[in-house]
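Researcher: Sequence recovery benchmark, item below. Answer with residues only.
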């Protein structure tokens, strides 16, 4: 039986944990057992000594403890002593949670805090498992996690792609490695999603290779596209274009600055035997203006920009940028046309997005109605108890 160091919280600081969050900030801690090392598993108590949960610590990070098990969980039975057993239970639950998703062989099996496994992301692309570790505490559990996921998912290859800039805050370098088998070569892999095929470049692609979180929205796009010209702004490897064409779009134009992604996008269309597509290397901010100046019109416009706003300070600039692309995006819509728009910026809320869209419509003197609200795919669950797990907000609106 392991004995873990104790972290005791200051008086009254247990509330957020009892409400279901998993983070403990440095200024909420009263005492830490002497000799506790960064990355260690710790037991957390409230000021009166009541157990709050088991997690891991890193004094380098403002989020000093992240819990793996907490008093707010159903079935909490006190401080955990067997970490392997705990990780196995969490990972098994996470994997089972995705078993209903049968329309693809590329899914996210572990989504960090949303699965009570802070610092860990695990995506399967066919038989290849890609893991991403963002915290020192999780890094220290890697061997156990890999062994458990290997048993649960039976991948033929396990590849680690831990490139998140947040590793720096944890005092860790970025890391990329083939975990199993050592001799494996990671080549682009072909996956399927809702009846279409896509090539995913796990090594050179963004994130773990594919925007799995947009799967359900790519599917939902289809009902707006039949017979329409579709503009896919920030298209990456053409996911939205492909579903527009599947639904009978007259033609698609995809825009992105990432040349490699655009090449894959064109390959993806050919792979599915689509012909009426164009992909163009362009900065969306300039290109939308140009298209408006050329009086081009589209039946559907998709705006899926990257996270412009990573920090609170960047929020103002981000809002201006978002408003800009919405204004031009709306001007490009024909009457009755639909705009599908997204924000994956953590600190732009759904309400912010609605405000931005409304203001953009006013500035563009365009009358709109909201048709649908969208969010991240179901393998990226979120819980209201941890607001940070909800990050992808989307809207569909119609030009009247
Ligand atoms: N819609 C895509 C995901 C888009 S991710 C899908 O479903 O797969 C955001 C994309 O925006 C990235 O591919 C990035 O290269 C691109 N990007 C970022 N800034 C850009 C800009 N100013 N102009 C054009 N593309 C940009």
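Model:
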């Amino acid at each position: 039986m392991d004995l873990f160091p104790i972290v005791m919280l200051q008086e009254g600081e247990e509330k957020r944990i009892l409400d279901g969050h998993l983070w403990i900030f440095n200024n909420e801690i009263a005492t830490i057992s002497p000799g506790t090392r960064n990355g260690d598993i710790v037991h957390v108590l409230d000021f009166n000594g009541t157990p709050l949960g088991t997690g891991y610590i890193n004094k380098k990070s403002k989020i000093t403890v992240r819990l793996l098990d907490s008093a707010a969980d159903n079935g909490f039975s006190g401080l955990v002593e067997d970490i392997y057993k705990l990780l196995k239970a969490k990972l098994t639950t996470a994997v089972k949670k995705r078993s209903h998703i049968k329309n693809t062989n590329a899914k996210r099996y572990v989504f960090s805090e949303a699965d009570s496994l802070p610092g860990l992301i695990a995506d399967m692309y066919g038989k290849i498992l890609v893991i991403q570790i963002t915290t020192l505490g999780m890094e220290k559990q890697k061997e156990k996690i890999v062994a458990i996921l290997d048993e649960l998912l039976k991948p033929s290859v396990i590849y680690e792609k831990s490139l998140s800039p947040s590793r720096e805050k944890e005092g860790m370098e970025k890391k990329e490695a083939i975990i199993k088998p050592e001799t494996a070569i990671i080549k682009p892999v072909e996956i399927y999603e809702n009846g279409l095929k896509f090539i995913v470049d796990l090594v050179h692609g963004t994130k773990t290779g594919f925007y799995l979180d947009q799967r359900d929205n790519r599917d939902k796009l289809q009902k707006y596209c039949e017979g329409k010209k579709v503009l896919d702004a920030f298209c990456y490897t053409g996911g939205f274009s492909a579903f527009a064409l599947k639904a009978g779009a007259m033609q698609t134009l995809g825009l992105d600055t990432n040349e490699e992604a655009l090449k894959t996008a064109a390959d993806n269309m050919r792979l599915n035997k689509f012909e009426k597509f164009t992909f163009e290397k362009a900065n969306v901010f300039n290109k939308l203006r140009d298209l408006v100046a050329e009086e081009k019109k589209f039946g559907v416009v998709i705006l899926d920009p990257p996270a412009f706003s990573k920090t609170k300070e960047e929020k103002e600039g981000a809002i201006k940028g978002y408003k800009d692309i919405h204004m031009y995006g709306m001007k490009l819509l024909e009457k009755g046309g639909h705009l599908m728009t997204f924000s994956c910026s953590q600190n732009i809320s759904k309400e912010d997005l609605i405000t931005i869209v409304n203001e953009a419509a006013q500035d563009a003197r365009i009358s709109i109605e909201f048709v649908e609200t969208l969010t991240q795919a179901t393998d990226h669950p979120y819980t209201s108890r941890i607001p940070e797990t909800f990050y992808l907000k989307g809207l569909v609106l119609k030009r009247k």
